[in-house]
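Per reviewer request, we include the raw input and output of the structure prediction for the construct analysed in the revised manuscript.
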Amino acid sequence: MRVRMGLAALAMAAALAGCQQKKEKAEFGVERAWVRLSAVMDQPGAAYFTLHAGPAPVTLVKVEAPFAVRTEMHESMTGEHNMSTMTPLKSVIVDAGEDVEFKPGGKHVMLFDMAPKVVAGQTVPLTLQFADGKSVPVQAKVVGAGDPPPFADK
């Protein structure tokens, strides 16, 4: 019995060490960027992505989209009585070694007055702007209003 408990403790310690090592090796970057078109003409679309902070914390302050007149970062939440609300975000802080996912029902970027030439199946550019002056360009896959996200859940 002691041997089993000792092996279990050793396995847990190895797993925790692996998690810590993964966090330390995490690199700054953006992945899984995509844009959902609006179901209703003249309504905003939305952009989603996963942001990795890397070894130092980062603060996202803006997302630019040359195909939209205006962009705003928001967070959707379900509050009292299961009412959904959306709050504008001035910035998003990502702690060192952590990820923040912009996804439906959570953090996202509203894309107002998108160019009509943007259609499902394309890729479009987004540029993420950070408080330290760094900017990161990414390509986002465009999907239709009723289409599934282009990336499988983690």
